[in-house]
Amino acid sequence: MICPKCGMNIALETDTCPNCGMTLERQTPPEPQSQTPVTDNMQAHVHTNTGGFCPNCGAPHAPDAIQCLNCGIPLGSGYVPVNPNQVPQPPRQRSRLIAAFLALFFGAFGLENFYLGDSTLGVLQILVTLVTCGFGGTIWGFVDAIKLLTYKKNADAYGIPLKDFDF
């Protein structure tokens, strides 16, 4: 079992923590319920038994729990947030105007593709630029800029819609 005050591993037979002296109450884990659904921006982790207490907040949990019901962190991942109120953020929405600017002025280097998260296409664009002495990559950049400005390219490499012009 883990001491909820100091986090030290303690033998199950002990009634007090040898490190901080806290009196421990024997708690039986709650009956297993249907597993708490994991949100889209969290990954499910295989639970490694930590003695039935959350490493972040010390709350007891079922042996097969994958997420703490008290603070919400995934169990067994080794992840303890710096701020207990920290929530994983979804990826940022990219700007169509910045991508078009990068394609127009730096298209030979594939910067618009790197900005939009498609590094494979960016590297391919650099290779085309090198093989064609700059001509192929520059044309590719102009074509990408036109696609972006005429709404023919509407999402980044992750499928997130591009943010429209906000003048």
In terms of topology, how is this protein built?
Blueprint: H1 96-106, H2 111-115, H3 119-131, H4 135-149
Helix pairs in contact: 1-4, 3-4
What coarse outline follows from CA principal-axis ratios?
rod-shaped
N- and C-termini, Cα separation: 58 Å
Low-confidence stretches: 38-50
> How many DSSP H or I helices?
4
Helix content: 25-40%
β-strand number: 0
**Rg (C-alpha, Å):** 26 Å
Task: Provide the domain count.
Answer: 2
Order of secondary-structure elements: HHHH
Report the portion of residues in β strands: under 5%
| Whole-number mean pLDDT | 76
Oligomer: single chain
Report the sheet with the most strands, covering strand number, pairing sense and barrel closure.
none
What structural category characterises the helix and strand content?
mainly alpha
What's a quick, concise take on this entry?
This protein is mainly alpha-helical and 167 residues long. It contains four helices and no strands.
Describe the structure.
This protein has 167 residues and is mainly alpha-helical. The chain folds into two domains: 1-89, no CATH class; 96-149, no CATH class. 26% of the residues lie in helices and 0% in strands. The protein contains four helices and no strands. Helix 3 (119-131) crosses helix 4 (135-149). It is rod-shaped, with a radius of gyration of 26 Å. It starts with 95 loop residues before the first helix and ends in an 18-residue tail after the last helix. Residues 38-50 have low confidence and may be disordered.
